[in-house]
Amino acid sequence: MSFLQVKNNASSILASGIDAVATSLTVASGEGARFPATNFHITIEDEILLCTTRTGDVLTVTRAQEGTAAASHAQGKAVRLNITAEVLDSRTTWTLNKLLKGAGANVAPTEISGWEKISEVIPGSAVDYVDFTGLDINTDKVYILLVNIKNGTAGWINVRLHREGDYTDTNYYTQYLTADGGVISAGRLNEARLLGMPVSDALTAVAFIMRDPDGYMQVNILNLRERASSVVMENRCISSNNTTTNITSLRVSSSATGGIGANSVLMLCRPRSA
User: Fold this and answer.
1) Are 165 and 116 in contact (CB under 8 A)?
2) What is the pLDDT of residues 37-62, one digit of tens each?
3) What's the CA angle centered on 257, arms 226 and 188, to 5 degrees?
């Protein structure tokens, strides 16, 4: 889609009359340059016409635009580039419920697709795990998992992320980097640990989930746990130890019964189709 072009003070008169089926017209000598070169609407009496191209003073037109009727127009009738409803619609249509990147003056912007929610789960009571099914990462390419989890137990818990029904922790590795005040620590675990949570704590995390070209699940996670002056930041990466041809299901699970507390929020998103 492209914008209908506009230009200030674009007007002239017909150099010769046209009938109701003519597909070109000529404006007064030397006045064609007052109009854009392509893709603009003109109004002659009660008819709106689309000019697809202009060469000098000659305009190639498509008749009867925006619900108007084609008609004959006599020599000397005014030819004007007016702001019509479709001129405005060609711009506002792009802006409704879309994220856009500008492409320059009078050029239609590029739509940035953004993200759409696949599923949102808010447990009404503490649960052991949450499943996301019916996925297709080969089509979607990447998922974003947003979690806001309350520890539903009286002890420390680990929250894990598995795919394709493979719940064997030793089939995954996690590399982590933790910043706790001025203390930095790092390590590697032979498990799919999405995050760890102290007693009665709440934690937020964002995880980017992909399948690499060789079929391994790769997850990059940024999470925050604890609060205020005790806040801890962690960056984690999970990598599967074996391959799969697709990722069609994901499970977020707790290491303890009821570890995902009531009113936790788990949301899975994918790129929105343009």
Assistant:
1) no
2) 999 999 999 999 999 999 999 999 99
3) 55
pLDDT at 39: 93
In this prediction, what percent of the chain has a pLDDT beyond 70? 90
CATH 2.60.120 domain position(s) in the chain: 115-271
Which residues partner with 127 through β-bridges? 260
At 34, is the secondary structure helix, strand, or coil? helix
Model pTM? 0.62
Q: What are phi and psi of 63, to 5 degrees?
A: -85, 165
Q: Dump pLDDT digits (tens) for 175-194.
A: 999 999 999 999 999 999 99
Answer whether residue 89 shows pLDDT above 80: no
Residues in the chain: 274
Q: Are 104 and 83 a contacting pair, CB within 8 Å?
A: no
Nearest alpha-carbon partner for 258 in 179, 187, 197, 176: 197
Q: How confident is the model at residue 88 (pLDDT cuts 50, 70, 90)?
A: confident
Whole-angstrom CA distances from 229 to 15, 225, 226, 233, 235 are: 79, 11, 9, 12, 19
Q: How many CA atoms lie within 13 A of 229 on its CB side?
A: 0
Domain 115-271 has CATH 3.90.550: no
> Three-class SS of residue 16?
coil
Which strands, in side-by-side order, build the sheet including 216-225? 115-121, 265-271, 142-150, 202-211, 216-225, 232-243, 172-180, 183-189
